[in-house]
């Protein structure tokens, strides 16, 4: 009797797991993703991950990407940090908003 009660308590203490169908989908451009659909939830959630930054540092040269980014932000050539930031922002505006 005590054994059965102990087993029942242990079973009740286990976490409840919901059945989720996870689909592995690939876009026409070759991007792979996991798709989980639940029509009872009225929202969309999206999480994107990609390799970049320190993950792309060469072997034995950890931190080189961070160093490069920090040095560029300090200026370049005849531009100080503020001049470089203004030139960068002007370039971004001219390429992203051309024709608007």
Write a short abstract of this structure.
Helix content is 38%, strand content 12%. It has 100 residues and is of the alpha+beta class.
Describe this structure in words.
With 100 residues, the chain is α+β, with helices and mostly antiparallel strands. It has one domain (18-96). The chain has helices spanning 2-13, 64-73, 81-96, and strands spanning 23-26, 32-35, 75-76, 79-80. Strands 1-2 form a two-stranded antiparallel ribbon. The chain is elongated, with a radius of gyration of 26 Å. The mean pLDDT is 81.
Which characteristics define this entry?
alpha+beta, 100 residues, single chain, 38% helix, elongated
Read across the widest sheet, the strand sequence of neighbours is 1-2
Radius of gyration: 26 Å
Mean pLDDT across all amino acids = 81
Question: How many DSSP E strands?
Answer: 4
Task: Explain the layout of strands and helices.
Blueprint: H1 2-13, E1 23-26, E2 32-35, H2 64-73, E3 75-76, E4 79-80, H3 81-96
Antiparallel strand pairs: 1-2, 3-4
């Amino acid at each position: 009797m005590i054994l059965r009660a102990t087993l029942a308590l242990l079973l009740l203490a286990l976490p409840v797991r919901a059945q989720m169908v996870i689909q592995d989908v690939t876009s026409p451009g070759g991007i792979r993703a996991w798709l989980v659909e639940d029509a009872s939830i009225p929202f969309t959630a999206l999480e994107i991950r990609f390799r970049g930054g320190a993950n792309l540092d060469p072997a034995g040269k950890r931190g080189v990407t961070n160093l490069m980014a920090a040095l560029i932000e300090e200026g370049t050539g005849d531009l100080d940090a503020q001049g470089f930031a203004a030139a960068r922002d002007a370039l971004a505006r001219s390429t992203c908003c051309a024709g608007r």
